[in-house]
Amino acid sequence: DVPPEYFCVLDANGRRRDLAERPELCHGHVEFVAPAEYMVRPPQPPVYFFVIDVSYNAVASGMLQSAVNAIQATLSSLNGAHTGGRTQVGFLTFDSALHFYNLKPTLSRPQMLVVTDVAEVYTPLNEGLLVDLADAEDVVMALVESLPEMFAATSNTQSCLGPALQGAYMVMQKMGGKMLVFQTTMPNLGVGKLRNRDNPRVMGTDKERTLLQPEELFYKRLGVECSRNQICVDMFVGASGFMDVASMAPLPKFTGGQLNYYAAFRADKDGPELESVVKRVLTRETGWEAVMRIRCSRGLKVSSFYGHFFIRSTDLLALPNIDSDKAFAVQFSHEEGNLQGRTCCFQVALLYTSSAGERRIRVLTSQLPVVSTVGEMYQYADAGASVNLMQRIAIEQALNSRMVDACNMMQTKCIEVLKMYRGLVGHGAGNTNLVYPEALRLLPLYTLALLKQQIFHTKGDVPFDLRASLISRAETLSVPLSNASAYAHAFKIDSLGPEVGTEQQGHVVVPGVVPLSIACFDPAGAYLIDNGYRLYVWLGSKVAETFFTQTLGCAPPRDAATFAALKLPEGEPTE
Q1: Are the CB atoms for 58 and 191 separated by under 8 Å?
Q2: What is the mean predicted confidence (pLDDT) over 91-96?
Q3: 121-125 contacts: CB < 8 A, separation 24 or more?
């Protein structure tokens, strides 16, 4: 039912006369400006609070400097026109103690306030720990620039990450926002202290799953509290050894954040990637204090959700932050009885606050046909979405039972799908030809590719921290990125046509995809490989000299040493 004022007479074709004036009747994706009853408080401003490890490992590895470089490069853009000058920032550094910073704009220099009692954390000031960037930008920049020098001579190897998170939470709990945590040392002091439970002997055994689950529940409990207070946590873990990533992972998971892991972090190796990711996190369009609800037609019901969120009620997902780099998977089940009508509907309603302070409701509605035969269902199947969901289900099974069970499940599902289709098309039992539906022709390839991913290795050759970080990332991947991470895309780039890189009919023209087989790679060619996470350039042993001089801007390497030192040129793209 709709309000009486929504009524409109019909035209001669039986359509509402105001159809063109109502986007919600013409489009599947619509945004509404939310009225006041959708606000429990004034819209939240963009808030960024940086929690930075300044222990010896952070300084020696260069992670502190890399974090500072990224923050410096993007700080001024955080207060652009898209935020209405409302951005607030704050900083906390930690080693064996907590260092809060008074950033009041009336100060000429920032003031450090040290809290050494990590057993009973408190905030030393009521004001000045979180400030408007527009008013205090000079003080904030002075602090950021001075951080590497302030701790350059440190020999402190301790880490009170848990108390630091508590302190940051106390500062942010009334406002909410995004907390960015930079960590290089295993927490070894105060609440949230972790122990080195790395045990290579259980790798590949049934006990491996215990090391992929959190041992310390502090981070899970804090994640729930952060979600309740609209705080999203993004973690950047630069490991110097075993870090127990699995215990820390629930914190970004329950707050809608992300976990970025760098094994044996070194600034020369991982610094550019860390800086790039931090800039992306700080500058991408973000929705604040969001909740999402998913509805479906009668006869269907939501059976499970997959992603980074906290389920506040049976069908309400709490998302302190939401952005385009997070994807969610939802599994529906068919209840008893037939679906009513020829179509069924699915609707996602996302309530969020834009960075400019506008409360909005984004509604995505899809209507799908109800088919009468299983054969028709195969015709409209989506292999990419199926593989994405299957991977998430397998991860959940691996964490609750055994990794080998998850692998067997994926193989069994793939075989069952093809076996059922084979029975539908009526081929006899003696026919050994492979029969598959056109829409799912890549399902066996993607299934085999998933089994070869490090997440699902069963031979005990994947470190626990790496596997836990890969699981955390896979839980947020969109369909295109999950497909690319399972089976990378390769493009031949040494002989590109003039149309490549141009826009035609709203799409950028890219070269054709090359199969990932050495038989398909030309020794005289160069290839760009995209695995959804990194881009690699593969150079054949007989690549033409002109490719090096014209594309890479250097002479061809003559030996292994000069080849290892080869770097791609930097700068703006040219025609």
Answers
A1: no
A2: 98
A3: 121/163, 121/166, 121/167, 121/170, 122/167, 122/170, 123/167, 123/170, 123/171, 124/100, 125/100
- Distance linking the first and last C-alpha atoms of the chain: 57
* Cα atoms found within 13 Å of the Cα of residue 250, Cβ hemisphere only: 17
Sequence-distant (≥ 6) Cβ neighbours of residue 487 within 8 angstroms: 445, 446, 449, 516
Looking at the predicted structure, is the pLDDT value of residue 434 above 90? no
Q: What does the pLDDT look like over 491-545, one tens digit per residue?
A: 999 888 889 989 988 888 989 899 998 899 999 999 999 998 888 989 888 888 8
What is the arithmetic mean of pLDDT over 550-563? Answer: 75
Residue 324 pLDDT > 80, yes or no? yes
pLDDT of residue 27 exceeding 80? yes
- Distance, CA of 539 to CA of 354 (rounded, Å): 44
Kindly write down the DSSP assignment for every residue of 115-143, as one continuous string. Answer: E---SS---S-SSSSSEEHHHHHHHHHHH
Enter the DSSP assignment of 499.
Answer: T
Distances 385 to 43, 442, 481 between C-alpha atoms, Å = 35, 12, 11
* Cβ atoms within 10 Å, residue 131: 23
Residue type, 104: K
Ramachandran region, residue 542 (left: φ > 0; alpha: ψ -120 to 50; beta: rest): alpha
Exposure string for 15-30, b = 16+ CB within 10 A, e = fewer = eeeeeeeeeeeeeeee
Is the overall model pTM greater than 0.85, yes or no? yes
Hey, what are 143's tokens?
């602090």
pLDDT, mean of residues 405-431: 84
- C-alpha span between 113 and 102 (Å, rounded): 7
Q: What's the rounded Cα separation, in Å, for the pair 58 and 79? A: 28
At 490, list the tokens: 């390769």
E strand or H helix at 536: strand 535-539
User: Which structure tokens are listed for 538?
Assistant: 């593969």
Separation in Å, CA 172 to CA 131, 193, 224, 250: 11, 22, 14, 19
Contacts of 394 (CB under 8 A, 6+ apart): 406, 407, 409, 410, 450, 456
Residue 370's Cβ-side half-sphere holds a number of Cα atoms within 13 Å equal to 14
The H-or-E segment that residue 383 falls in is helix 383-400
Let me know how many helices (H) and strands (E) the chain has, helices first.
17, 21
The pLDDT of residue 574 = 43
CA atoms 429, 434, 439, 442: torsion sign: positive
Which residues does 151 contact at the CB level (< 8 Å), separation at least 6? Answer: 54, 58, 59, 64, 93, 95
CB 501 within 8 Å of CB 509: yes
The DSSP code for 16 is B
Four-point Cα dihedral 315, 318, 319, 325, nearest 10 = -30
Mean pLDDT (the chain) is 91
E strand spans, 270-336: 287-296, 300-306, 310-311, 316-322, 329-334
- Between 372-376, 404-408, 409-413, the lowest mean confidence (pLDDT) is in 372-376
